Amino acid sequence: MQVRDFMITNVFTVKPSNTVKDLLDILNSNRIGGVPVVDDQRHLVGMVSDGDILRYLAPKPPGIAGLVYVIEDGEMEDILPEKLDTPVKEIMTKRNILSVLPDQEFEETIRILSRHHFKKLPVVNRAGRVIGVLSRGDIINNIFRKLG
To answer: Tell me, what CATH number does 16's domain have?
Structure first.
């Protein structure tokens, strides 16, 4: 079996210039937890997830840094609109982005997902353009369907 047998081809993506608000809208309306970040030619430039959003929006820990945060930024309700206007490029994962090709072996993909604890893995063509995505849930569902 190859990646193309399991990948989702209806891929939602964002651009680095999209805002966190745009990203939240895409994740919420499509009931997904993350998306590839692509440039204008659909080349993969990063990944962003609901976890990245939570880490970005989370208040700073107590201590001197936390006091500065509270003094400078105020309450969460006051700073939320400003944070929602932040470009995705500020919170996305940019380094060590792994992807797979559609003709790669499925077993290799499972090893990558499990070894790195990824929830999603972008599928790119030989030109580096995003053409699909694999998620842990989609893989489990497809394995179950093929068995049953």
So the answer is: 3.10.580.10
